[in-house]
Structures are given as C-alpha cells and as structure tokens.
C-alpha cells in the first residue's frame, strides 16, 4: 500500500522549504553508493512499498526489494537495497525509515496478539484509534500481522455506543433511528452488562460489543447469544489474558493498542561503497 501524498508531505516537512544542509556540505553530489535497509530485531515487516516510494520520490530507481510485507524476519535481515546518488539516499533515509519502522511495529505487535490466541477461532481486530492521516496504512499493517480490520470510517457501519444511547433515549430508540435512516448498514451495539445484551438481541444487531466484561461474563454472553449474532470483547484485555477471552467463543478481541501503542520496529540504513 502506498500513500504518495503523505510521502510528499513528509519529505516537505523534513526540508521545510530548504535543503539538507549537512549533506550538501559534506557530500559533493557526485558520489554513488549502495545502502541496505536492515532489520535490527526479529519481527513482521510492513511498509516496504511506502519506503520504496519514498526513494522513488527523490529520484532513486535502482531499488531491490528483498523482503515483502507480512514476512517474519530475524535480526540482521536485509529488507531492501538501494543504489544511487548519496545525497538523495540521505534525504530519503529518515522518512523511509519512519514509515517502515512504524508500520512494521504495528504488524509485529499484531502478530504477537494473534499468536497469543492460537488454537481458538477468535480473531484479533483493530479499532479507529489510529494516527490521523495514517489509518489506511496502519490498518493495512494490522492485516500484514495477521489481524483483521474493524470499520475504516464512521460511514462504513454504525456502532451504537453509550453516548449514542443516552442521546437517543435508549438502546431500542438508538437502534430504530439508525435502522430507519440507514436501512442497509450493519449495526453494532455496545453493551456493558448481560442484561443490556438480552435487551439488544431482539433488535437483531449484526454485532454486539461486550465492553469491559470478564472472561466469565463473555462466556455467558456467548451462551445467551447462541450464535444469533457475532460478539466482540473490548476493554481490560491483555496479552496475558487474551487466550482466556478468546477461548470463551467470542468472535473478535478489539485491541486499540495495535495502532495507538505499537513500538517502532528497529530498522537501520547502512551505507556501503561499491
């Protein structure tokens, strides 16, 4: 996945209308080098296409992609090699690494969560807690890590949460208003208690979000629903208890941390003369 407008903005942000004064002062402009993008740790890669597009944006064309998105790598793996003008490579370096490191961090954290619920039919799902302007890229990285996506935008589907319920005057009122206005849209309802779940089921929602419930409550919710709708658990879920939640039979675990708290994956750019 590539967002060329975002790349242009990122490079412009780095230059601020000027030039790379360090490279202009120390590099004549005639040098040609090779540079390797190297993983400094093990993890899952995402953002290769973005990094390559950054290099292309500054005029580099001799680019060899050695590892594709979604691949698990070990420390020391060369992901991509670029050859060309030294100044251009140095100009692109930080922007390319920022995209590649961030998106690989999201993919790597997602894979960690996916591995934590191995052996269940549950899926790890993201939220809208994304970096402004980078939602499509971050949700793409989640998929590269083995996770699945929730809605991309507010217009994709309805999610009736507690504030909507208060504003509308109740669960049934909120649901009927959404259904009347958008008859073909999927509707998800957030519930805080099992009693609210029982009240919501006759409305036939496409999905019910179990907010801050324990694994025991989630298991009871699965029994109550008996397959009539899908269930998503959210809140209070950690890597340590993810398996317990997934084993209850819920369909999804909603993990905001996939995009709002993923550590940057350590990748370096190593120049070498040829």
Would you spell out the secondary-structure blueprint of this structure?
Elements: H1 4-15, H2 21-26, E1 32-39, E2 43-44, H3 48-57, E3 62-65, E4 72-73, E5 78-85, H4 86-116, E6 123-125, H5 135-144, E7 158-160, H6 162-168, H7 171-181, E8 187-191, H8 194-200, E9 207-211, H9 215-225, E10 230-234, H10 242-246, E11 252-254, H11 257-260, E12 267-272
Parallel strand pairs: 6-11, 7-8, 8-9, 9-10, 10-11
Antiparallel strand pairs: 1-5, 1-12, 2-4, 3-5
Helix pairs in contact: 1-3, 3-4, 4-5, 6-7
What does this 3D model show about the protein?
Helix 1 crosses helix 3, helix 3 packs antiparallel against helix 4 (86-116) and helix 6 (162-168) packs across helix 7. The protein has two domains: 4-107 and 263-272, Aldehyde Oxidoreductase, domain 3 (Alpha-Beta Complex), CATH 3.90.1170.20; 115-260, TIM Barrel, CATH 3.20.20. The chain has 274 residues and is an alpha/beta fold. The protein has a six-stranded parallel β-sheet. The longest helix has 31 residues, at 86-116. It is elongated and about 70 Å long. Strand 8 (187-191), helix 8 and strand 9 (207-211) form a beta-alpha-beta unit. The protein has helices spanning 4-15, 21-26, 48-57, 86-116, 135-144, 162-168, 171-181, 194-200, 215-225, 242-246, 257-260, and strands at 32-39, 43-44, 62-65, 72-73, 78-85, 123-125, 158-160, 187-191, 207-211, 230-234, 252-254, 267-272. The model has no long low-confidence stretch (mean pLDDT 96). 42% of the residues lie in helices and 20% in strands. The protein starts with a helix and ends with a strand.
